[in-house]
Amino acid sequence: MEILLLGGTGFIGEYLAKDLLQNDADHIVAAHISDMGDEERIAGVEYRRIDMEHIEDSFRSALRDIDVVVFAIQPDPAFIKKALAVLGGYPQKKKLVYLSTVLVYPEGSHGHREDAARSPLSAYEAGKALEEDMCMYFANESGSAVCIARLGNVYGDVKNRGIVDHLLRALVQKKTFHVNGDGTQTRDYIHVEDAARALNHLIHADQKNAVEIYNVCSGIGFSILDLIGMIEMAARKKLEYIFAPPIEEKHTVIGDPAKLRQTATSSEEGDMLSSLKKTYHAYLAHYE
Q1: Which domains does the chain have, with CATH numbers?
Q2: Mean pLDDT across the stretch 247-254?
């Protein structure tokens, strides 16, 4: 299978590429928009550059021989619109896997299933919800298969820029972390290696419907204060933190991964504390 990863040089894309390489029958192509050094390239992955000034032509060229296109990028509706237009004009239908977020769901302490109504709040959430709609419309119009993967908060590497990254960098660099609000804000977290395995499965899975949506998450909520406690246990160090004024955000968002676990051949996940220990040591190696 020929797989094109848009965002294949980013945090999740890089781990997904490595996981896909375990399938000997797959050929992995990572699209990138800037120059890359040899040390950044993964052995066994082909790299094709996208020229942002000539998106349509360069994307069309990158699509040659491709069976599946994975969108693992930050929200960019203008790019998605152009990419879908190119895909719609391509003679061979290609499966699309779009990486979204469980944050499109409303607040709630229970795990949201995939059929729950969406309620985006931040610009990031709104961008992901809009691009989901664009992909679903494309599937219905073109007959192409579209799989939407709504990810929990992914962590596990220094390339990440989420809350776990901010906490670990503050700890390793001996800085004071500012907790916005009371620290009880709760999210659903998943290690990047677990997310990559799940996405690998979804890329290869047969689809009965034009659009399928899966939550790729743990289904377990942890607050910021929970994270601080577990990181301190993992590192055996105290993290200095102070409370700061709250920001506008949802308090609690958790996904229900039951649908994925019913279909995936392997859905083992590491426990949060063990995964944080591994992540902490990766940060130590990088920053010290």
Answers
A1: 2-153+189-216 (3.40.50.720), 157-188+220-252+270-287 (3.90.25.10)
A2: 97
